[in-house]
Amino acid sequence: MKKNYLLYLAVSLIAPVVFSCTKPEDELDEGLDVASDAVLVLSETAIEVPSGGGSQSIAYQLKETVEGASIEAVSSESWVNQFNYDVDGVISFYVEPNEGPDRSATVTVLYGETSPCSFTVTQPDPKKVPDSFLDNTTWTAIKCDFDRERSLFYYCDTETHDFSWQYNPDDPDNPIRYITAGKFAADYAAAWNAAYPDDPKTTDYFLTFEFTDPTTTEDGSGTYCDVEFRYNEAGKPTILMSNGASTPAGAATILSVTGTYTYDRASSMLIVDDEAIKQRIYDDAGNLMDIIVLPRETLIHVEKSGEYLILRVEKTAWPHPDFAVDTYIPESKDQPSFGFNLNNFDLSQEFCIYGGLTYTFKPWTPEESDEQ
Fold first, then answer.
1. CB of 180 within 8 A of CB of 153?
2. pTM of the prediction?
3. Which domains are delineated in the chain?
């Protein structure tokens, strides 16, 4: 009968239905820590409800009746309400949708002067990624965009393409030269609208890119990005993020992420031991002698929005002996990078981008391969 109750919970994830999960008297107490003289016994001590909420129920048993007594349930939180006792042996109630962080409530069940019982109701953050999203799944990106405040655009030398210009010798109190993605988009929009007054654009139009090509093309090109979650031979979870050679953001090496990871559920962060970047060593004749992995730690924040998976790259670096990446706003001489640059409207300035690059993925389906 335990399986029947779990089936009820699974059904409640799909539709707000009330389902009686009463059990035979000889099974109700099974597995529960119940005093031998208890009059009131609940079928469960904890119920997990989906973030969307809905109608729920729990079964109870009265080992003996008490004259004049009736069942009454009281919740510690107002979002668990509408208790109903019309069906003998069943308490029905309603849980409101959750729009915030994980939460829980304690429901106390009273029966006259007898000892009360209680159970907990837990409800996850609607943005929290369930285990099923990361368990042998494949996703394909539909768009990527930059966080307007957290993505930093570092000034680069337009000839050498390095970011030596981020250090401003004329301003020792502010040696790192960068602007936010929001500032970049605003400047780009202003320049665009001045050049094309008959085709005005808002700042929201810029720095948002759509992936429109098939997942895989014959030559590996195209504006696509896929992410796979698998387990390696040692049973450790791994992430593989691959992309077309031509991407909306240029040769965006950050799209290549390969390695094992740990999932910090409290912060919703994937901590990746990233080995995607490799350095090829050649001899004087141009023969490949060795390939060296340039390890980097990549932090990716994960959340869900309905059926979509949202990955926000919080931290990474273009590996280099002098690089020391730590935070969004690095200390002096830190050189964070996604490995690609972007130009302003008139190509007079080049920027190296870091932090806050966000990808929206939809579940990959075999039909998408048929489009090739």
1. yes
2. 0.66
3. 2-123 (2.60.40.10), 131-370 (no CATH)
